[in-house]
Amino acid sequence: MADDDSYEIMPHHEIAELKRQLEELKSKASDSDSQKLINSMNALAKQLSELITVFRNAAEEMKTEEKDEHFVAKKMEPLLDRMDAIVDQNKTIAEGMVAVADIIKEHVGQEAEKKLSHFSKPKSEFGPHFEPPKPDFSGLSHEYNPTKQQRPPESIQFPPPRPMQPPMGTRQMHPSHNMPPQRPMQQPRGMMPPPGPMPPSPSGLPPMPDLDMDLPGEKKGGLFGRFKK
Question: What is the count of structural domains for the chain?
């Protein structure tokens, strides 16, 4: 027991220093610094409560928005169904238009093929190397030859003029029986020449003869030449 109750002898000034430090610690516990710490802790708690309130309000707003979205979705369901029906109808109409266009195209193609076959039918009947017969001009008159140059135009012969009637009261002169026959008047120089001979008709007839039937050896003269004789 003597060992347990043994004490160590210490100097008095050390014990006094320890007491002083304990008093300082007690005084610091009730100082303004601790009050500041307490105030800061209270402010932090208040801010945390405000933050919690903000989160609570946000959650309530989200719930309200979800309710609104659900309500809008219910309202939009009929409209979406109508839109789907319209899309299906448009698809059906488009398919029908494409089918009609294909039918019309096939019909037009068949009509075109029928027309082409109708136009090409005579050729197919006679064969691919069929040639139409050429016209035969061997029966025409040998006088007409289109390759040869036509003869120059001849002078136009006018019909014989009528005898002049003498004035009233004068004696009419009768021509003598010895006078030569009256000849038609010739065309004066500078007049337009008559057209050339007509080409032969396709029937093979010869061209018409010219009207110039002058006989050789006859003396040409007019009406005044007769009276001079």
Answer: 1
